[in-house]
Design brief:
Two copies of one chain form a homodimer. Chain A is α+β, with helices and mostly antiparallel strands. Chain A has two domains: 112 residues, Pseudouridine synthase I, catalytic domain, N-terminal subdomain (Alpha-Beta Plaits), CATH 3.30.70; 134 residues, Alpha-Beta Plaits. In chain A, 21% of the residues lie in helices and 30% in strands. Chain A has seven helices and ten strands. In chain A, strands 1, 2, 3, 4, 5, 6, 7, 8, 9 and 10 form a ten-stranded mixed sheet that branches. The longest helix of chain A has 14 residues. The first copy, chain A, is globular and about 60 Å long. At the A-B interface, strand 3, helix 2 and strand 4 of A face strand 3, helix 2 and strand 4 of B. Chains A, B: It holds the Pfam family PseudoU_synth_1. Chains A, B: Homodimer.
Chain lengths: 258, 258
């Protein structure tokens, strides 16, 4: 049977979600933890790749399982074999055709930066850092230009070619939370480094070093060079992946199928 | 001249602020970093001890300095020699008689706990953990009984005898922040483990395992056993130490002394 896992991780010590030639991937940590449980697991597939140093509160992954552990208890068993920087927060049976990546309707990411005089000690691995005064209202207003369906070609790093760079951003908010500046973005999908390029550009706009209009210009001209730097990975966190209940199989989920 | 340092630290890898026979103290890390700077430093004294694993965003400490670095630049120089989990966030000259510990008018601590099904991966060293449903409104209401001047004898761990356990709590708030439950307390001073005992007791009250009345009973009877467990250190953070400008020497602070 196919299982949907909800996963949380501190990406500091990992080369990202995806298995790489060099470095230890979160995917590998989860696979090794699954292998220590009774039964047989295969085909662990994440909803999205996260880069080295990037965190997740709500990563999702599917895996096929034949074994004695009830699907809704699997996450508890898995926490017994996972390292402390990776946690399974929920598990449920889904339809056999369900796919964590292809069936994702949308994702929400958060970029959080410590906005102080000096980089933070306490939050050095779970937040980025932006020095100096930021006009957060101006950042939020500027960001609204990205909401909607656009060709985001300018908002990606090279290295992962895609067929189409058209994505729909459904929400973008910039706000202050205690000593942090937070950029929260929901979209039907994201290009490689898209959130970190948006965040890095909004920080430049907030400092007054770039004009708010660069966002619209970059959408029209598809030119990465118009935008700010890619913000550091430690500030990025995958908050949520959204699926339709129909795709997952609602009866199966709630354990009411029989 | 006497300097007031503002310090931030991730207490995870330290035995606390204060030098101990076993373990490496934050105080020691700061002293060693000061020694690498030009000039002579002596008598580094913190506003308050923090326990092993406890963090600080706003620890204060005074130190005497004879050397070439201007007081208001000292924190920047210090960050060049401090380890990454300790940061100096400000520095200023204060009156020679100023004392970081004795002159503190009050402190604000925050206890933050991840309130989920399983312990957090991302926040495992910077937050505590409380499982299950919590009635946060009930916790906040119950906590108001502690506001004011009381004998907090029941709210301390043994090991650090004090002349008087009378303290004035000026504010206590319990609130939700995203996936966290946060207890924020300001007082003119705190007994050993006082915040962690208050937090641990409020969590039991929030779960319905202890009645709100235990707080008042414990104040009256001075009985530690009436209260909940001491909450884990990683959730505790020293937010702020408050001083009177007169004690510090306002003119000196702002560099306008002539």
């Amino acid at each position: 049977m196919r299982i949907l896992l909800n996963l949380e991780y501190d990406g500091t010590d990992y080369c990202g979600w995806q298995r790489q030639k060099n470095g230890y991937a979160v995917q590998q940590a989860v696979e090794e933890a699954l292998e220590k449980l009774p039964g047989h697991f295969s085909g662990l597939t994440g909803a999205g790749r996260t880069d080295a140093g990037v965190h997740a509160l709500g990563q999702c992954a599917h895996v096929d399982y034949a074994g004695p552990i009830p699907p809704e208890k699997l996450f508890l068993a898995l926490n017994g074999t996972l390292p402390g920087d990776v946690r399974a927060t929920a598990s449920r049976r889904v339809l056999d055709g369900f796919h964590a990546r292809y069936d994702a309707l949308g994702k929400t990411y958060q970029y959080r930066a410590w906005n102080g005089t000096v980089p933070s000690a306490v939050f050095r691995s779970t937040a980025g850092f932006v020095q100096g005064k930021l006009d957060v209202q101006c950042m939020d207003r500027a960001g609204q230009k990205l909401v909607g369906t656009h060709d985001f070609s300018a908002f990606q790093s090279t290295g992962r070619p895609v067929r189409s760079a058209v994505r729909t951003v459904t929400e973008l908010r910039v706000l202050r939370e205690d000593g942090f500046v937070v950029v929260r973005i929901s979209a039907d999908g994201f290009l490689y480094n898209m959130v970190r390029i948006i965040a890095g550009t909004l920080f430049e706009i907030g400092k007054g070093r770039l004009k708010p209009e660069v966002l619209e210009d970059a959408l029209v001209r598809g030119d990465r060079d118009l935008l700010g730097p890619t913000a550091a990975p430690e500030g990025l966190i995958l908050l949520h992946v959204c699926y339709s209940e129909a795709k997952m199989g609602q009866n199966i989920l709630t354990g009411r199928e029989g």
